[in-house]
Specification:
By secondary structure, the protein is mainly alpha-helical. The longest helix is centred in the middle third of the chain and has 26 residues. The protein has one domain: Hypothetical protein af1432 (Orthogonal Bundle). 62% of the residues lie in helices and 0% in strands.
Length: 350
């Protein structure tokens, strides 16, 4: 028996009946031999962790564009916080931690430079629209490894695609990541806003603070505890009463409402704050100019993207979006300067 098979036996014996087992996976689009050590979802996690798209997240905006301080979150640190929240919840519920971690690490691979400002810009430019969750799936299916993709399992791709509030992941592990994403960004965005002196704890309405917590640590702890206790309660009811009208992973109505109120407060006071978001106008114009420039000059795109147009028959505007979406903040700035800013005239003297 291989190490992988031993791990799969342990999953069967120890995980919750609601957990997604490796042996029950719907598999990959392209069949490949199994690893003798790592089960499917662990291999998926490792493939994401070693991808170029994952490394680029360290230089992509979370909330503040190109922040000067070392302690502001980037898209990478956000991803790691989502992963940790999700693993804590999954362990308590005896769900599949490898699946949770793979989904969490891959959920934001498709984010653009300059965060949601970049996403809105490309969504308005591309004829098919642009959604970062769908772009994350496109990266792991097609763009990574020079067009080969990562060949991830169906369950990981489903969780990545459906991590946003309006969607519904097929697995309990995907639902854990969807909640963990909201828990992470609401808490760390407040922390960054306080660091930037845009908000203070006292600005948060007292009724929200009483419901969720008076400090960042309290809020994080209370939200995670609420998901765990509510989910365990639902699972127990489903086991005893054979109910199918309950979700195995969810947050209490009271806490969900309080988090929604906090999110609304953040939109009003941070996400649309003219001081915090003043540079987004420049970012929007810069990405628009780059998009139009490469749309007219596809021969200047990297070879992989030219091949997607000429050999694979992909729409030009879709491929240009792929190229720009993959840029980091600084790479986009450098490209803009290279393309549009005049260079000093140099004369070589004898």
């Amino acid at each position: 028996m291989t190490i992988r098979e031993t791990i799969e036996d342990m999953e069967r014996a120890t995980l919750s009946p609601y957990a997604t087992l490796n042996e029950n996976s719907r598999g990959r689009d392209k069949d490949e031999p199994q690893c003798d050590i790592r089960p499917l979802f662990q291999r998926d996690r490792d493939r994401i962790l070693h991808s170029k798209a994952f490394r680029r997240l360290k230089n992509k905006t979370q909330v503040f564009l190109a922040p000067k301080g070392d302690h502001y979150r980037t898209r990478l640190s956000h991803t790691l916080e989502v992963s940790q929240n999700a693993r804590t919840i999954a362990k308590a519920l005896r769900l599949n931690e490898d699946l949770v971690e793979a989904i969490a690490l891959g959920h934001d691979l498709g984010h653009t430079p300059f965060g949601h400002c970049g996403e809105r810009t490309l969504n308005g430019l591309c004829s098919t629209g642009f959604v970062h969750s769908e772009q994350s799936v496109r990266i792991v299916e097609k763009l990574e490894k020079d067009g080969e993709g990562l060949n991830l399992t169906w369950e990981v791709r489903d969780g990545i695609k459906n991590h946003q509030t309006k969607t519904n992941p097929a697995t309990p592990e995907g639902k854990v990541v969807r909640l963990s994403d909201k828990i992470a960004y609401i808490n760390h965005d407040i922390d960054d806003a306080i660091r930037a002196q845009i908000l203070s704890e006292d600005d948060i309405p007292m009724e929200i603070r009483k419901a969720i917590g008076m400090t960042s640590d309290d809020r994080l702890d209370n939200l995670i505890h609420d998901v765990i206790s509510c989910s365990l309660n639902n699972m127990n009811i489903m086991d005893v009463e054979c109910r199918n009208d309950l979700e195995p992973v969810m947050m209490s109505e009271e806490m969900n409402q309080a988090m929604y109120d906090l999110r609304s407060f953040m939109f009003e006071n941070l996400y649309t704050n003219p001081y915090a978001k003043g540079e987004e106008v420049k970012a929007h114009r810069m990405l628009t100019e780059l998009y139009n420039y490469y749309l007219d000059r596809t021969e200047l795109l990297p070879k992989q993207f030219i091949d997607m147009i000429e050999k694979d028959g992909e729409a030009t505007d879709r491929v240009v979006c792929d190229y720009i979406a993959g840029m980091t903040d600084q790479y986009a700035i450098n490209k803009f300067n290279e393309v549009f800013m005049p260079m000093s005239w140099m004369v070589v003297e004898d």
